Structures are given as structure tokens and as C-alpha cells.
Amino acid sequence: MxxxxxxxxxxxxxxxxxxxxxxxxxxxxxxxxxxKAKRRIALGPHVTLMFEDRxxxxxxxxxxxxxxxxxxxxxxxxxxxxxxxxxxxxxxxKATMLIEYPDVDExxxxxxxxxxxxxKIWIQVGSGDKQFxxxxxxxxxxxxxxxxxxxxxxxxxSDADVEALRAGAEAVIGIDHPELPHQTELSPANRTALAxxxx
Length: 199
Description:
By secondary structure, this protein is an alpha+beta fold. About 35% of the residues lie in helices and about 20% in strands. A hairpin with a 6-residue loop joins strand 8 (about 170-175) and strand 9 (about 180-185).
């Protein structure tokens, strides 16, 4: 007997048809942009963490289906299989990490100076310990010579951290890498948004 899908994961029944999405895209996109604003954390001028959830991933899938004109069941299932792992499962946080430089050559040189930077990202809630991200569980995006510009991170918080976050404790996200040392204190809106990922 097949296990029931996790309630946090998306299925085909959660998605709009291409026709309906074309009609509702403008309003849906505005809703997602407002939602993402509370979940986007800048770590200095070159690194952004986008904390994903069910809504942000639904938007990613809907946009992919729209751009690729995918409407058959097998194609939709492929997109669901690719994107569903990026949704937090109620016990963790998941984020897309983007390393951005406006100049292509500058970006290439920077990425060559920071292999392994994705393993140096952490979150600390209140007086708790730093919890370092688990990076790129689907495939390795770094080698000895460079790192990639996009990484996928998972943060596992202790029960005490989760309770503290829900109670409004301060939280900080940082990078412990000599090329990009930085830390950012989360705003109350950030903390509320991320606390909602735990259930």
C-alpha cells in the first residue's frame, strides 16, 4: 500500500491548468511577490537566501509549466518530483541560496575563491547554537576549484530553537567564510514567516 503524500507536498490537484493560470497569473504573482518579501534574506551585497515554502514552490512550478507549455500528466509529475523536495516538511527550513554579481567576469572570479561556501551558512535563534545548513542533497555544486551560483539548503532546528523562534526570540543568519563574512538579524516579519514553516 502506497504511503499518503505529505500534506506539505504539492500534487497535480493543487496546480492550476495552463488556461486558468493564464487568467489568474497577475493576481497570483502579486500575492507571491508580497509573500516572498518576508522570506528573502540578504547576506551582504552578493548573497540572498530565499526561504521556500509550499506557495513559493507552487509558483515556481506554475511558471515552469507555463514557460515550457507542459500540460500532460507525466510532464507535470516530473516537475512536482523535481520541486517538491524544496518544500520544508514541517520540521525544518529550506532555502535557495543565490550568489549574485552584476559583472560576469567578477562573478566567475568570486565563485573560484569560495568553494564550499554553501556549507558555511548558519542560523542562530536566541542564545542557541549555530545550526549550519545541509547543502545540495540532490547533487554536489562545489569542487576544489569553484562553487556554483545557486545552492539548495536545509536547516534543521532543535525543538528549543523552534519554540524560541515562535516566542519571538531574536534570530541571526550568517556566513562563516573568509570571502563573504556577514550576518543579518532577522526582522520580526522574517521570524514570523519562518516560524510558520514548523508544525
